[in-house]
Design goal:
The protein is α+β, with helices and mostly antiparallel strands. Helices cover 27% and strands 24% of the residues. It has two domains: 2-171, Archaeosine Trna-guanine Transglycosylase, Chain: A, domain 4; 187-301, no CATH class. The strands form four sheets. Strands 1, 2, 3, 4, 5, 6 and 7 form a seven-stranded mixed beta sheet that branches. A two-stranded antiparallel ribbon has the order 8-9.
Length: 305
């Protein structure tokens, strides 16, 4: 397993370090050019400050990379972008882009989504092994061999000292071979990955206007559902509301079912009733498709027959 040590904006780090307990953060890149492909999902992503602070100061567990417009990024992650406002986030991005944009320009940025972030105190900072001052973005370390192995052991010691730190859905191994674990997604990461999984189109209507598309939980988080892509549907906002309120559902065969109560309750709903029986679009990756048992749960517990 590899880890990636990324050069990190100190203001971003300092803000998040004092923001309280966070389940996820967005490590944004000022440019959307070039996908981040250095890690598999579940691998450690570590933060190193700019020189002369050549130390590892924290990290998280990589889950996903994508490029998104700044406004959507702020809506999805808010202060988990390492800033108190959208304007502050844009100011930091544009400092690295070295281009001042007009207030209405909604440019794309790269987004490295990290789960279960951790921020080390000054006393816990680690010197970066075998680091060259010519490195601009970051460096990959193989955690099975030195110096990566020693680096990972030192990170684990610091995390365990905090008391029972758990990475993903399995405990961090005490020592021995590093293993990948599937990171639990936060709400923002769930929204982003579901949006991409459906090709940024509503599963029912094919709508592509991103501001009106919502990543819906099939089984709500408050009812024991998880922020998992296979517990999600990308829906246009009006259909999302109807889905949440039980006026529409999706069968385990991926067909839309529409309640006749739309007509009786609101003397309306012809547009939605016309879609009754429609085969919805699902993600091309089988592991991202809605789980049939969750769809069955929604029909049984939410659908108004």
């Amino acid at each position: 397993m590899n880890a990636f040590v990324a050069v990190t904006d100190k203001d971003w780090f300092t803000y998040l370090q004092t923001a309280g307990d966070l389940d996820e953060v967005n490590f944004w890149q000022p440019s959307a050019a070039g996908a981040f492909q250095a890690l598999d999902s579940g691998a450690p992503f570590l933060f190193k400050l700019h020189s002369p602070d050549d130390f590892i100061v924290g990290g998280g567990f990589f889950s996903y990379w994508t490029k998104l417009r700044a406004s959507f990024v702020w809506e999805a992650f808010g202060i988990k972008n390492g800033a108190s406002t959208l304007e502050e986030m844009r100011d930091r991005i544009e400092r690295y882009r070295r281009i001042r944009s007009s207030p209405g320009e909604d440019y794309e940025i790269g987004c490295i989504l990290l789960q279960q972030p951790f921020f080390l105190t000054r006393e816990e900072w680690l010197p970066v092994p075998e680091w060259s001052p010519n490195i601009v973005r970051g460096k990959t370390y193989d955690l099975a061999v030195q110096p990566g192995r020693k680096l990972w052991d030192e990170i684990q010691l610091r995390l365990r000292a905090r008391g029972g730190f758990v990475a993903g859905e399995a405990p961090v191994p005490r020592y021995g071979e590093p293993i990948l674990v599937q990171p639990r997604l936060g709400q923002g990461s769930f929204r982003v990955i579901v949006t991409d999984a459906y090709g940024r189109r509503c599963a029912v209507t094919g709508e592509k206007a991103l501001p009106v598309l919502i990543a819906a939980h099939i089984r709500p988080f408050a009812d024991g559902g998880e922020h998992r892509v296979d517990n999600g549907l990308l829906l246009r906002s009006d259909i999302h509301i109807l889905f949440d309120r039980g006026y529409v559902t999706v069968t385990p065969q991926y067909r839309l079912e529409v309640s006749g109560r739309l007509k009786t309750d609101f003397d309306n709903g012809e547009e939605y009733i016309a879609w009754r029986g429609k085969q919805i679009s699902v993600p091309p990756k089988p592991e991202y498709r809605p789980k049939p048992d969750l769809l069955a749960w929604h029909k049984e517990n939410r659908f108004i027959s």
